[in-house]
Design brief:
By secondary structure, the chain is mostly helical. It has two domains: 92 residues, no CATH class; 40 residues, no CATH class. The chain is 56% helix and 0% strand. It has six helices and no strands. Helix 2 packs across helix 3, helix 2 packs across helix 5 and helix 3 crosses helix 5.
């Protein structure tokens, strides 16, 4: 695939296996390498060792050759999605995401009390600052008093 055809049709892949892995990653809303990490854990039962991550990245991302177990895992994900049996918010699919909020996103009374409290604190501090410095020309920095500004005589 040359650069021009890639720019015109970015959704097309030359290799069907790479396309399936990319599609499965998109369905799960994760990156392709994260899908490879999940596939490795699914196939071998443990996390991808650091010494194997580099060669796997080289093989899959740079050379475009997907391992058979990764392709099988991607096909399994796509099959579950077609059948409607895939929960994309399942935490097992997002174990490598630092900030994934599914249906358990912060909510409830404690979250709203904290949000309103922070807003009230900010508004109160700005109001207090404006009351303390009555001769200030502005509420927000830089703080200049009327005496510090040049007088236009």
């Amino acid at each position: 695939m040359n650069l021009w055809s890639l720019l015109i049709h970015p959704d097309r892949e030359e290799q069907a296996s790479r396309s399936e892995v990319a599609e499965a990653a998109n369905v799960l809303e994760i990156g392709e390498f994260q899908l490879l990490q999940l596939a490795y854990r699914w196939r071998f039962g443990h996390e991808l060792p650091d010494d194997r991550a580099g060669p796997l990245f080289q093989l899959a991302m740079v050379e475009g050759r997907e391992p058979a177990w990764a392709l099988h895992y991607a096909q399994l994900i796509l099959e579950r999605a077609r059948e409607g049996r895939l929960n994309v918010n399942d935490p097992t699919y997002h174990r490598y995401d630092r900030f994934h909020y599914g249906p358990d996103a912060p909510q409830g009374l404690a979250f709203w009390v904290m949000a309103v409290g922070c807003g009230a604190l900010l508004l109160g501090s700005v109001t207090l600052a404006s009351l303390v410095s009555a001769e200030a020309t502005s509420v927000l920095p830089p703080f200049f008093t009327v005496q510090e500004l040049p007088q236009g005589n």
